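User: Before I run my own analysis I want an independent prediction to cross-check against. Here's the chain; please return only the structure tokens and, at the end, one sentence I can use as a sanity check.
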Amino acid sequence: MAKAALIVVDVQRDFCEGGALAAADTLSLLSPLQKTIEAARRAKAAIVYTKDWHPQEHSSFETIGGPWPVHCVADTPGAELMPPLHARPEEVVIHKGVPVAGPGYSGFESTGLQNRLQELQIERLGVVGIATEYCVRATALDGLQHGFEVTVLTDLIRAVQPKETGKVLAELQKAGAKTTTSADWLGSL
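Assistant: Structure tokens:
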């Protein structure tokens, strides 16, 4: 069986209810996601957390002409993983969106994630998190580009615009990604 990693995309305070750039219905994501992470750990899958980790003057911020409110500034409470999520020391935490310029949507963009996954001999990725139409989408597409088998776990993603989810999943399937539930993905480990 090919080695797997669960990629937990940007489940950070600023992207959850009450945060600077909250996606829809994120609080309902937390408990089932934590249970899936625990099950993936038991199944010996690698756990990878991506985190927006922006400099104060990131090009995406409205304050300097970008499309988004200031969010996930490095070393601020808004950039922390949303409880109850907590990375263990042996798990991989990727900081993305670190350069001032560029969107930093993908967990693979200028982060070294591809190399880390190759070092761990990972071949299969389960992708979950926030936001479906931005960072989840970009991370899944880049995972495919790097030759990984990518499955988006449809019950563990949340969008800024939920009506976009179907369109995004169709695009990802056309690109070669699989879509399934977390229970089915866990059952395949």
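Sanity check: The first strand starts at residue 3 and ends at 9.
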